[in-house]
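Hey all, sorry for the wall of text incoming. These are the four entities for the joint prediction.
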Amino acid sequence: MQKVTCDTLVAKACELLENGTVDRVLGWKNGEFVYDVTPALFTTVDDIKSEFVFNDFCGANFSKYLIEETRKTESKVLVFLKPCDTYSFNQLLTEHRFDREKVYAVGIPCEGMADITKVKAAAGDGITAIKAEGENLVISTLYDDDKAVACADVLAERCVVCKSKKHVAYDELLGEDGDVIDSNRFDEVEKLEAMTEDERFAFWQNELSRCIRCNACRDVCPACTCEKCVFDNPESSVVNKAISDSFEEKMFHIIRAFHVAGRCTDCGECSRVCPQNIPLHLLNRKFIKDINSFYGEYQAGAEAGSRAPLVDYTTEDIEPTDAVLKGASDNA
Amino acid sequence: MQRIGVFVCWCGSNIAGTVDVQAVSDALQNEPGVVFSTNYQYMCSQAGQDIIKNAIAEHKLTGIVVCSCSPRMHEATFRKTAAAAGLNPYMVEIANIREQCSWVHKDMPTGTEKAIILGKAAVAKVNLNAPLKPGESPVTKRALVIGGGIAGIQTALDIAEAGFPVDIVEKKPTIGGKMAQLDKTFPTLDCAACILTPKMVDVAQNENIRIFSYSEVEEVGGFVGNFDVKIRKKARFVNEDICTGCGICTEKCPQKKVPNEFNLGMDNRRAIYIPFAQAVPKVATIDADYCTMLKTGKCGVCSKVCTAGAIDYTQKDEIIEEKYGAIVAATGFNPISMDKFDEYAYNQSKDVITSLEFERLTNAAGPSAGKLVRPSDGKHPHTIVFVQCVGSRCAACAEKGKEYCSKICCMYTAKHAMLTRDKYPDTDVYVFYIDVRTPGKAFDEFYRRAVEEYGVHYIKGMVGKVSPEGDKLMVQASDLLANKQLHIEADLVVLAAAIEPDKSARPLATQLTASMDTNDFFTEAHPKLRPVESPTAGVFLSGTCQGPKDIPETVSQASAAAAKVIGLLAKDKLTGNPCVAGSDELMCNGCSSCERVCPYGAITYVDKEFRMPDRTTRVRRVASVNEAVCQGCGACTVACPSGAMDLKGFATKQIIAEVDAICR
Amino acid sequence: MQINGEFQPKIVAFCCNWCSYAGADLAGNNRLAYPENVKIIKVPCSCRVNPMFILRAFQRGADGVILCGCHPGDCHYTSGNYYTRRRMALLFSMLNYLGIEKERTRVEWVSAAEGAKFAQTMNEFTEAVAALGENKRLEDLRCKK
Amino acid sequence: MNNSTENLQKEIIRSSGVNPKKCMRCGKCSATCPAYDEMEYHPHQFVYMVENGDIQPLLESKSLFQCLTCFACIERCPRGVEPAKLVEAVRLAVIRKQGANHLKADDIPALLDEDMPQQAIVSALRKYSK
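and here's what came out:
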């Protein structure tokens, strides 16, 4: 159950639209299914009143949308940012990807978003309605009676290990600001590091071989904002639009993760949108964990304008050979 | 499609002994793009070069692969050959089949196979080569020296002597810097003023030199050969052109209580002042922080006594814009603050002083007219303790001291101790040291003389504590060699404070896009081979802004920097390395990653208008590489996530083609 | 690649122009033998080596990739190899995390005076890669003959 | 250095967290030490002797218990060597020796004198009353 209600957001959006602060609003509306909430752009109060939704399925991170949106007109766009979204917001500012002056950012608290896969596992298929009631979600399906599941049990993985409830950028905050959380988000990475090389290879072979190269992970990623991706560019020599062999998807995912290394805020959008449920965040988090352990704690986006670890160095940095040993416990 | 010619060299038996050269030229004949392939005994000989030239003409070659010795040997030779035959020299690639093949392998079949693969990689690369032309840019024949200490003075004089105009920007009202404050100089003990002031006069009289005193660099734009600099000439409220430097105003000014920074605050000056008698330019300056007229509008004494009418209370800061071909940083140093060293009681007792203050105390033009007296009571000190390495070699706390050795303290402390004993034989002089470091011509001899001839007590060990007791200073120290703790009742304690770069250096480095180390010393382009150049082309380093140095070293570096500047200004045009980075603006995100890794500050960002497919226009921030500044390392190409940044001559496509050819 | 029934690894070595390539030349001048398996690609600075090049080599059938540059602090471009060091530390750690044997990748600092070190490094590296056998985990099956 | 000394040296370096190699022999620790004259081995010697594995004389020396643990040496050391921590580690090595308990709580009052700092009494009680 979210602490801030849909009505509050609607009221805020209408207010800002009516008083002329903004002329467009980035928000969510229902998709084909109730859990299928999609990002939408609203320009009228009527649309907002009738279509705007906010519930436990509003995971989409709007930061990336600002790049295109701010280019459209000279006036401001309203964006609602959950704490984790604000990190991406800052990171994009660091990289000069949009004009801060053209955005009115409203920070909203977040109690964690639900993972539909987990909901389905708990309540079965054929979902027709989902209602939040206290700490539970009440789920109606085609086949059974309504079923209540605890929100906590269906939290998305990224929300279970939420790194921060603190907004690091906003013009206005609805509700109270939280704190940075000392989460155990690297546990899964550590588990993999503790495996043998063979086990790790088997794990990733199993995961990555499911990749269908739909590019959803890339397209949703707020760090992947290149005007043209190297994998789409025939001049890059690595252009590839579809999986064609056993290595291609590895190449894609390694390079994708490397390109966002030090810039990835760990927002978890890549894993959220993956239709094949590949835990892509484990690649990004490996880089984050290595960066923290090799070069000191660094949270991308925590501070606008900070220097990313890969465009920085010290003369005493760890040697690659030692880094590999340090990066995996089975090598010790 | 290229038309490539392959030329396999035997290098006598050097290559042909281990590699079947005929097999190599035959195999490469079939590679894509290759229209001609041959081998010859000595490709680098005149006859060999003629084969290449003829083939270029006969087969209309657009690219050349020479399978021979290392490109470090003969790449230049074959590029010239190609150029002579009308082919762009950057269409030549070398396959190194001698140093990296025939000389390290013994077996003919495997050696031949490897040579073929190396040849194929070179062919694959040439297929993607493009003709390159080195960029040219004109050179503004004027140099800027920032800082008017002995380093800046020497650099400016040397450049001016070579016939080029030079401007010196000095933030203080006079040039001279730290050296002007010193008494005597080691190891020869001649007086600093006697050797410095003639040079200052030379600067003033040199027609090629302009001095902007009481001025600071406001903004730097442009690049090597073409810097655009804005200089802020601070208002000194005295017309420099009219002021004769007679000094009457500095005697009549009623505001007498201004701490005299030239004497490190040990005495006072007036609100209108000339820092010292030999100042250059010798004109007065009004200190706006203390001048009653400027603060309240009531006084005007200086204006009344000035017969020349030089006082101008309405003067404003002036911005001067000038173009320069080269910039020399000579921003110098300062002793660090002693505030954090409570153990030495610097802030508790007037009789604990720094070495620079000691210089002023012993200087004939100083606050005590050269008589060595205690600042507290003006009495003659009988026991003096010198403490070395105060704040130098201090790795424990970055706020307190500096990790590096300040280099000059051992020598000046020996000088102070020696001079004290020489002039006042009735004093006991102790020097506490960790190590005495005296490399340098006649330096160690100097230090030994202090001990042997002048009877200075050198004690290995540090002072732990100085506590004022009555009018004495109790010094508690260890004597490591005697394994004793000493308690000395001293009259004066002199701290050899570490030196640090002047605070103006950091913002200046940012303006110049010159890099600095963690201690704020300017980084040199190469620590051994290019010690007076900054990695930023056209920016040179003189004196202690690059690292701790004594006067002889500073002067040699100053002259070296001048020589580099002269070498640059002597050119009419700068020819660049054509293998430079370039950004594809259509793909650039403007994210600044490349800018951040560029060691030369060659990348800037511009807002550029793009026409979109739907006929609208869009302004985007894109990277722009200054080819005159880029050195072609390629760091930016990897930092760039979109692949917009590429390196000419070593393009991503070319290297991947080589990889593919090798792994084929 | 098999020669006389013995596995011969394919090794790609990226060498920076100023130190390591010169170090390789020195190995040649001194006739210090190392295996033919090693093929050198010259780059201006180790920081020119894009992780894509390394992955591409593996994709196209390389069994080991080694990157040589100036010693830290000696970079011709002052800071290039410091960036290389960070990039490769992260990349190699990632490759190992994906289950790629850590012996297949290496960074070595070789100065222009270290011909012997160059040859020795190449001998050791080739031996280590040969011991692992063919690189099945990262190669592109399409490119196999 | 024989094996047991080497182990002891390693143990002292490990438990103290001090790297004696950082010492540049300036002697500021000893210069600043208020208990200097009472000590047979002075702070700088502690550092030097531990670095060289010359541990036995330290174990037997009374200097161990004359250090006031005032931390002046730690405060003043320009290299961050922290000699007092080293002294403490050697002291612990002695205390931990089986059957070599020097001090019983009952003995303490008799040993007190007016000059002994309060801090020393407290730390002595803490250390030796086990």
